């Protein structure tokens, strides 16, 4: 999930946009935030303040189940060890692009589910995937509480690599707590926001429920993949092979709808071209008399997008796009009315967006398409010095973001045809993976109960929509494997929704962070855990009636 976190997490963790939300609750913060901590059993002493410097409050009058205050007290009293749980997970690398720590992390995640008391926990070797690569392990767990409702909880345990270590203010696998205005404590580390922070928050919440009450309000099925940063290739194979493990599930705890994304590698080589070096790199001085595959590759890339890189030039690329509906347009207009483009750009760490107009920017971000150059390599890749090299091959990696009714295979077919027309038949296309778009709506009990939970905690309650959309349910602007839970390529087709508190940023970037102590209108980790607990009780029907539910 590629991704920023706001107070209310209806969307995938994407774009790094961190916008605070208004408070409207009634609860009063205790005079001494640390009082509950003093009742905790002996354990790590980090001095975490459960309420930090928050001004946002939850409405006590809507907490009707007697278990919830006990759970809240437990969370406050054990928040130090909950943060340590996250630190320990951050300290275990799990980089799917390189394989570093993947096996160890899969076993670690299984241990989490064992600790929760799930009756079935297993690490699955998924084998070869449909795209030819070996998939990373999938961790499955089922916690049968004898409850009426069963929720699938989607996780990824893998992270992106650390590409610029010198830019980090703290080692990326340390999990250090630092001050970062306006927050007195945030955790810095790879995976902090994408997605170990939110996931450990969920686990801490359900562990707290079990510790305080002895039983969860719903049955849980966990599915944790180690290939999210590799196009979910292993999860795709797992669900195709083991769809029966999800029978009886009522809903999925996940971001909602999703855009599509297909990843490809383009390769130009002297061997395929029939010019330049055909076996290995050669001395760069030979460029005076030898053709360079690298320059051929650069010329080829220049013909795929407009000079500014913002419009794809592949013929027919935009042909199948379905225009935004009136409801989607209205939603964009409403969001744009209060959207601060300059603040969002600063939070993302960019100079500015392509457009300064809030509506245009939001439409591009939530319902746009693109071809990105994610990386390019070949020849002399060492910083500093010289070292003359004429590479025998060059490879570039690209992700195409697409929306209804575009498809990944169609985009790749059009790319192949265009390259052939341009005279680049020798350029190889390797499909890394494809995640189709998936539409979902918010006209279901899980979305209603999550919306009500947000309302209890002073967060805006989204309007209900029965329209299937990638934007209305998921927020748009990012992909996650929603298609595997939406009937597109699996037997699973059930409602998808989540409500999450907390704040974080810099996903895929240096100094990835997750708020530990909240401030202002943003909850910290303790508040985020209470939101999860309340949401599960609401969905189970154990916290009074949900407005609008049947």
Q: Average pLDDT value? A: 91
Give the low-confidence spans. 1-41
What is the overall silhouette?
Answer: globular
* Rg of Cα set: 24 Å
Going across the biggest sheet, name each strand in turn.
Answer: 2-3-7-4-8-15
Strand count, sense and closure of the main sheet?
6 strands, mixed
The class by helix and strand makeup works out as alpha+beta
Strand content: 15-25%
Q: Compute the separation of the termini in Å.
A: 31 Å
Q: How many distinct beta strands? A: 18
Given the structure, what is the number of helices? 13
Helical percent range?
25-40%
Keywords:
550 residues; 16% strand; 18 strands; alpha+beta; four-stranded antiparallel beta sheet; 13 helices; 28% helix
């Amino acid at each position: 999930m590629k991704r920023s976190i706001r107070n209310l997490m209806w969307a995938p963790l994407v774009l790094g946009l961190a916008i605070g939300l208004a408070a409207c609750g009634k609860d009063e913060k205790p005079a001494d935030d640390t009082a509950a901590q003093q009742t905790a059993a002996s354990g790590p002493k980090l001095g975490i303040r459960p309420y930090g410097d928050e001004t946002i409050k939850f409405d006590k009058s809507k907490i009707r189940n007697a278990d919830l205050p006990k759970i809240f007290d437990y969370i406050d009293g054990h928040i130090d060890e909950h943060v340590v749980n996250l630190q320990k997970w951050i300290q275990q690398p799990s980089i799917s692009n390189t394989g570093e720590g993947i096996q160890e992390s899969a076993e670690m995640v299984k241990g989490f589910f064992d600790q929760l008391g799930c009756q079935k926990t297993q690490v699955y070797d998924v084998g070869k995937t449909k795209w030819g690569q070996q998939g990373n392990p999938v961790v499955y767990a089922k916690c049968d509480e004898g409850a009426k409702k069963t929720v699938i909880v989607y996780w990824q345990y893998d992270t992106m690599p650390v590409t610029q270590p010198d830019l980090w203010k703290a080692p990326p696998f340390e999990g250090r707590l630092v001050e970062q205005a306006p927050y007195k404590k945030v955790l810095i580390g790879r995976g902090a926001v994408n997605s170990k922070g939110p996931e450990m928050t969920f686990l801490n919440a359900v562990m707290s429920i079990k510790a305080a009450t002895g039983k969860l309000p719903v049955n849980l099925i966990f599915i944790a993949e180690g290939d999210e940063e590799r196009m979910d290739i292993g999860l795709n194979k797992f669900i195709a092979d083991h769809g029966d493990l999800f029978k009886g599930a009522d809903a999925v705890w996940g971001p909602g709808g999703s855009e599509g994304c297909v990843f490809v590698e383009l390769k130009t080589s002297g061997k395929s071209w029939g010019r330049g070096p055909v076996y290995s790199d050669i001395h760069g001085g030979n460029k005076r008399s030898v053709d360079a595959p690298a320059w051929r590759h650069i010329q080829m890339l220049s013909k795929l997008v407009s000079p500014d890189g913002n419009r794809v030039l592949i013929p027919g690329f935009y042909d199948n796009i379905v225009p935004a509906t009136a409801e989607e347009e209205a939603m964009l207009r409403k969001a744009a009315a209060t959207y601060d483009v300059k603040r969002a750009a600063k939070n993302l760490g960019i100079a500015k967006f392509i457009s300064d107009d809030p509506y245009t920017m939001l439409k591009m971000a939530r319902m746009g398409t693109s071809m990105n150059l994610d990386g390019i390599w070949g020849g002399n890749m060492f910083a500093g010095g010289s070292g003359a090299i004429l590479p025998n091959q060059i490879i570039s990696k690209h992700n195409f973001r697409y929306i209804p009714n575009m498809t990944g295979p169609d985009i790749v077919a059009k790319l192949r045809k265009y390259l052939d027309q341009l005279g680049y038949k020798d350029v190889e296309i390797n499909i890394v993976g494809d995640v189709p778009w998936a539409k979902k709506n918010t006209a279901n009990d899980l979305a209603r109960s999550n919306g009500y939970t947000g309302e209890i905690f002073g967060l805006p309650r989204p309007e209900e929509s029965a329209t299937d959309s990638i934007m209305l349910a998921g927020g748009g602007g990012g992909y996650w494997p929603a298609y595997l839970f939406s009937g597109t390529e699996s037997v699973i087709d059930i409602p998808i929704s989540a409500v999450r508190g907390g704040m974080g940023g810099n996903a895929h970037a240096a100094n990835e962070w997750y708020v530990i102590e909240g401030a202002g209108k943003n909850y910290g980790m303790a508040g985020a855990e209470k939101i999860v607990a309340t949401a599960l009780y609401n969905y189970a029907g154990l916290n009074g009636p949900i407005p609008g539910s049947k």
